[in-house]
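Students often ask what a 'structure token' actually looks like in practice. Rather than answer in the abstract, let us consider OsmC family protein, a protein of 146 residues. Its sequence is given first.
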Amino acid sequence: MHEITAYWEGDMQFTSTNPSGNSFFIDTTPENGGENNGMHPKALMLSALAGCTGLDVLALLKKKQIELDNFTLDVKGKLTKNHPRTYEEVTVSYFFEGADLDVEQITHVVSLSVEKYCGVIAMFRQFATVNIKLFFNSEEHPYNAQ
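Now compare that with the structural description of the same chain:
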């Protein structure tokens, strides 16, 4: 079981802990009464998705002894127009950089995360379409679950 605690800091700000004991700020935009001094709740969901699949991918690449020069994730979420505004579509883009990248092996690793291991992607699929894009040294490659 995971448990967090969110402490109200005044105005529209909270400090949130997580099971490891680390903390971060949650806030909202000025038009919603906040000061933009922290993470926005819905954006945190996208960060959780990126972190979940990113950690999976790194662990699997390390296990396969595949080295990268750089790895970046970009997650975009499209919200519904009506309240409660939820994500209806999410696109996860994986950017891999390095010399002699093994596209097939890296694609397989991403597939393992997306289709089997990443619980956050599985949760998102309960309410949103999840699209996957792969880029190797800035060149887009098709993603086909393996």
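One point worth highlighting: The helical segments are 41-63, 103-117, 119-124. Ask yourself how you might have guessed this from the sequence alone, and why that guess would often be unreliable.
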